[in-house]
Automatic annotation (TrEMBL):
Residues 41-222 form the Putative auto-transporter adhesin head GIN domain. Residues 1-21 form the signal peptide. This is DUF2807 domain-containing protein. It comes from the Bacteria. Keywords: Signal. Pfam families: DUF2807 (PF10988). It comes from Chitinophaga barathri.
Amino acid sequence: MKKTATLLFAALIAISGSLLAQERVSGNGTLKKEQRTASGAFSEISTAGKFKIFLKQGNSHSIELEADENILPYIETEVKGDELELKFKKGYNINPSKPITVWLTLAKFEEINASGQVELVSDGAFKGSKLEANFSGRVDAKLNLQYDKLEVAMSGSGKMKLDGRADDTEISVSGSGEIDAPEMQSQNMEIHISGSGNANVNVSQKLEIAISGSGSVNYKGAASVEQAVSGKGKVTHQN
């Protein structure tokens, strides 16, 4: 018991030291827009922090930011291979006076990895063959898609609203996440929910559902349904 207490105390000291080592930077209230140069084309996005991101499909690639002028230098935008990394510089505790807004234009949108308090909004519909979306934390996404295949993995308390079409869709929700997609047409879909998450979907051919916990699936469409539910989970069909 004494050894455990000693280890716990040491861990708390280490965490406290790490937080104290971070330099706090607060926004000065003067907003400024800034264009960033992309070193190459990117089809994947990785972001962590607190950003509001507007996505648009176009022939060129562009990055534009709006934030407190004294915070802009602490926002990193770096293209590595096919991936754009959007994040804060290490060693700093960034506190903007207003939400940081990001506008991204890209030709292909194939993968998004977002964690923290990120808001994603698509400006118009994105078209492609496959999109993979991985969210953790309190990510809020509103996307209009036209894809052959869509894969979504959500953990935490995020929300995702989907419109458009995704012929084959795989959804995995752990925690209290929410998928709102009654206006997105899918032919085939697999849904896995653990925890108290819920999904509202539209499927025309085949729907496979697995729920553990108190999660729920509400679906419309004429799909044949296979379901495995444990706990207080429920599946309902909306006419």
